[in-house]
Design goal:
The protein is 30% helix and 36% strand. The protein is an alpha+beta fold. It has one domain (4-116): Winged helix-like DNA-binding domain superfamily/Winged helix DNA-binding domain (Arc Repressor Mutant, subunit A, Orthogonal Bundle), CATH 1.10.10.10. A two-stranded antiparallel ribbon has the order 1-2. The protein has a two-stranded antiparallel ribbon with strand order 3-4. The radius of gyration is 15 Å and the shape is elongated.
Length: 124
């Protein structure tokens, strides 16, 4: 199987690029999960916390965090740390992908992940 490189962007105050290689099987497995798909759709244009995603997608926070961790490891989601008044911190998440393509080639599945510019992500 062919592997595709995706970029991961993390940190609200320190946007860093960490190139990761994502296997087609990983991308397909993530997209086959209903919560992962729902989360990607929900955070495509607006940053949200795991709590907000859990409520919006009718799941537990532990499920939300597990899916977000997997999406983040694959470079499809970025995590941002927001400082709130009173000194509290809140983690929010945004989708880093613009599009995902899957193609069946002669040697198996191939995926192409188009990553958006991290500066175009809206933070809550």
């Amino acid at each position: 199987m062919t592997e595709t490189t995706a970029s991961r962007y993390a940190g609200a105050t320190q946007d860093t690029t960490d190139d990761t290689t994502v296997s087609p099987g990983t991308v397909i497995a993530l997209l086959s999960d209903e919560y992962a798909r729902a989360f990607l759709g929900a955070i495509r244009t607006e940053a949200k916390s795991a709590r907000e995603l859990a409520e919006e997608c009718d799941t537990s926070r532990s499920t939300a965090y597990r899916r977000l961790d997997r999406l983040q490891e694959a470079g499809l989601v970025a995590e941002h740390l927001e400082c709130e008044p009173g000194g509290h911190h809140r983690r929010t998440f945004t989708a880093t992908v613009e599009s995902i393509g899957v193609e069946l080639g002669e040697s198996g599945f191939e995926t192409e992940v188009e990553v958006r510019d991290p500066s175009s992500s809206t933070r809550g």
